[in-house]
Please model this.
Amino acid sequence: MTESQRPDTEQRQGGAAAEAISIVQRGNLKALEQTLRKQWRLGQNIVLCWSPDERGMLVILVPHYFLGNYCAQAGGGGGANDNEPFIRQLISGKRQKSRDELFAIAQRLDVSPTFIKLSSPLSEEESVLESVEQLIKRYGLSFVNSRAVMLIDIAEFSLYTPFEQASQLNSLSYSLNSAYNKLLSKGIKINFARTTTGDGYYVWNRDISPYASQDLFNFLLLVMADNAAARAASRGNTVPLIRSAFHIGSHYELYQAEGINPTVFSYIVGDVTIELARMVDKAQPQQVLIGSFECDMPSRERSGVMLPVRVKTPGFVRICKRDLGAIAGIALAGKTVTGIDCQLTGEDPADTAVEPGRITITDKHGLHRYAYNLEVSIDLEGVRLALGLGEAEIVDHAESESQVEPPAAEPQLSRARAADAMFNDLAAILKRRNEQSTGSD
Model:
């Protein structure tokens, strides 16, 4: 679905922020930035929330270690363990509070608000308030309950020379930018952010509109396609062989210090990044794994409002698949994309009641998680480009705990594999002990 086809209520955020900000309010923002930087103290303190005041503004500042200590304590607002949910809600979404709300938060946290004097009262214009929000977040910590994130990892990265590594990272970075431009040409703007893992990138959509997750999924497909086209035309080891994962989950977002200032680029860490790292660690080169998740997707319009529907991973992929025609016509490797299709391994396109097989992934801690294998097919003027791995390729090369299994059989199989692993480890330990005791005799 292109940008022009989406309801006005679902358009990308940021249009209001384009309003002109007066010289007086720009002076307020500059003074606020300078004060926050001093109070931030190179990352020693973080800002939780703020409230406008007739002479300036009030903020709640706490040491960076305060939240961890507070969440470890017994709850103080009606539950034994409600401190962490309270903090998560506090640092989610907008940070602006009413005066009464801010003082109630300060009382619960047992801290005093900090007053910041400004030369004139803050304007209530949306552009000014949004600029203040961005400043507060740069000097604080944010929590996002649900966001799509993808991880692209270069296979066998450590085996290449430093020059080849630099070339491959540069090639992958170009594929990200190329995919962005291709989607932009179809009216789909991805406000993407990325952080490097050393041998790849975490990538997410800064946008939080209902279509943000779907747009990032399309973005992943085009990054993969651009990378495949580049590999076909390259020589040597200048273009990476990648493996990818896509997941939707929660994370914290922060800005680290660079010198004496916070960076303008954010970093994320949380459940979603942990799940992605575990999935990619077990993925084969060229494989694409989709995490097991639930999320809200726009379903139907009623009275000018898109009503969300709660879907699991197979439903999410089906919705994305249904709208893939919107990116047809994009140029790739000198040819036009005439068709694009995707499906999870094991599903029946003719019968949505048939659930695709899930992959059981066991990490180094013995914890189990589930994922789905994604297969992608792109038609380039009669030439078919296949991305991802098929089921036979996974079975032939994957470790036993990562094979595609029917959903109903997974728990039993996982326990059986865990028991086998335990017995094998025990046998190996006993063997080593016997060898050591024989040697000592």
Summary: The first strand starts at residue 45 and ends at 53. Confidence is low (pLDDT under 50) at residues 7-18, 396-403, 408-441. The chain has three domains: 3-139, 147-405, 415-441.
